[in-house]
Design a protein that fits this description.
Rossmann fold; Nucleotidyltransferase, domain 5; 2 domains; nine-stranded mixed beta sheet; six-stranded mixed beta sheet; 16 helices
């Protein structure tokens, strides 16, 4: 019997010539064959990471730790300040945790301080280090106390502490290693206070790790532009795409993603998944967090007017059989809108404004739903469970199909709708909605996820939100059947 290898269902991309190390831009070592603190403990850390996690640090992470802790001809740490910038989901937590543990075991009684934009974020780094220290037979003997709440202490008096991202919390503390997570969110004065905490002592360092920022990232902009000549004792290691834009060609995008994300270049992360994720993200978010390039202006833009308008078709070209009817209202109840959505024969989603209702009430909206149910036999009604929960309740009680959008639905709908707009998978006869979309902003929820909120402009957005929910409902409904409700 001959075995035939099945072809991979996902797209393949040419990443030839792109390696996870070195970064796109980095400070060159003093000599090609330099030595470092990390090389003395490399085998110890490999065993420790394997014992604790069942995996080792990636080779590029190994090389980065080696580069950061380069020593000069006298055996003294070359750098006093280091900036690391890399796209999201590349193991930043692992790097900072390993660096903190390295200082804890390499120095007699160091003070290691972790700072982030929130204590919860700093806790992630500390917990990773704690897990490795407690589960490793090679590292555990170095520590006298290892707790989740009272810190990490070595048998020789070294301490690892978490601090709030406030200048007052750091003043007067002698620091051997200061670790700053997400530098783009940190104030300049905090970095300065940490550097002052190093004093004039050798073998002390402040290290910041981050993704790219925007116009408001004052500290990060300064560090990006800083001179990294040897005399400055400052090092910079930046993985980034060649330009601050999202390429139209998928293979070019894949290559740029690999340049900004060593986890992709190494093969640990699937590049096909990364390309797909970017195609469903607003461009400024993709540029900043996935291509690791700075963006200008607001980071909350959602749908561009030209992107929406190019999907417009004549009203008589829209024909939706058994539509999904999505209802939303303004916060002050001055207007409500009913949006009709449904799939077309070519698997796009058609959108039209079914009705605009001034000064609505729950009673009036219910009557309109009953009337439209008799006329067009919709597959289901869709409402926001928070703003129109009373309407959903009444429709259900009277036997009408209705789906209420959960928080998870709202988050999924936001990214799905954006993806369909930029890919041209929507047709509509509602160019007037472009005005509302100008005032739709994104509010981050977790990682790259976001929900939609009203911006600072005067336009209401109830019709835009109903459109987003309606497209999501049409895409996630069963073929020819009703939604789960």
């Amino acid at each position: 019997m001959t075995l035939v290898e099945a072809e991979a269902p996902e797209a393949t991309y040419d990443l030839a010539g792109i390696a996870p190390w070195p970064p796109t831009r980095y400070t060159r070592p003093l000599t090609p064959d330099f030595h470092s603190w990390y090389e003395r403990y490399r085998d110890t850390f490999r065993k420790a990471w394997w014992s604790a996690n069942g995996y080792c640090l990636e080779r590029w992470q190994d090389q980065l730790l080696h580069a950061i802790t380069e020593v000069d001809a006298f055996g003294i740490l070359r750098y006093r300040e280091v900036l690391i910038s890399v796209g999201r989901q590349n193991g930043k937590t692992e790097i900072v945790a390993a660096l903190g543990l390295l200082f804890m075991v390499a120095k007699r009684s160091p003070t290691v301080i972790s700072v982030a934009s929130s204590r919860e974020q700093a806790q992630l780094v500390y917990k990773r280090a704690l897990d490795v220290a407690t589960r490793s037979a090679t590292l555990a003997p170095h520590f006298a106390r290892m707790t989740n709440t009272r810190g990490l202490t070595t048998i020789t008096g070294g301490e690892w502490e978490l601090k709030a991202a406030k200048s007052a919390a750091l003043q007067g503390i002698p620091i051997d290693l200061g670790g700053v997570d997400e530098v783009h969110l940190v104030k300049s004065v905090l970095w300065t206070d940490m550097v002052n905490g190093l004093g004039d002592r050798d073998d002390c360092m402040v290290v910041g790790i981050t993704t790219a920022g925007d116009d408001d990232s004052e500290l990060l902009l300064r560090l990006y532009e800083r001179d990294d000549a040897p005399v400055t004792r400052f090092g910079r290691f930046v993985w980034e795409a060649p330009e601050a834009r999202v390429p139209k060609d998928d293979n070019e995008l894949a290559r740029w993603l690999a340049m900004a994300n060593p986890g992709i270049a190494s093969g640990r992360r699937k590049v096909a998944n990364a390309v797909s994720a970017v195609r469903g993200m607003p461009q400024d978010q993709a540029i900043r967090y996935r291509l690791n390039r700075f963006v200008s202006g607001s980071d909350n833009a959602y749908i561009a007017v030209p992107d929406w308008n190019r999907l417009t078709v004549p009203a008589d070209a829209i024909e939706i059989v058994r539509p999904i009817l999505t209802i939303d209202r303004t916060p002050d109840w001055t207007f409500a809108t009913i949006i009709a959505t449904g799939k077309t024969d070519d698997d796009k989603i058609a959108v039209e404004v079914a009705m605009s209702i001034p000064n609505p009430s729950v009673e009036a909206l219910y009557d309109e739903c009953v009337d439209m149910f008799g006329k067009v036999s919709p597959e289901t009604f869709v409402v926001d469970g928070y703003t129109l929960g009373a309407l959903a309740k009444r429709l259900k009680e009277n036997g009408y199909p209705v789906r209420t959008m959960s928080f998870g639905d709202e988050v999924s709908a936001a990214s799905m709708f954006y993806s369909k707009v930029v890919r041209g998978h929507i047709v509509h006869a509602a160019p007037g909605l472009a005005q509302q979309f100008q005032n739709v902003a994104r509010k981050a929820t977790h990682g790259d996820q976001y929900k939609l909120v009203r911006g600072s402009g005067p336009q209401s957005i109830e019709a835009a939100l109903a459109t987003v929910r309606g497209v999501y409902a049409a895409e996630t409904s069963d073929d020819g059947g009703s939604l789960i409700y």
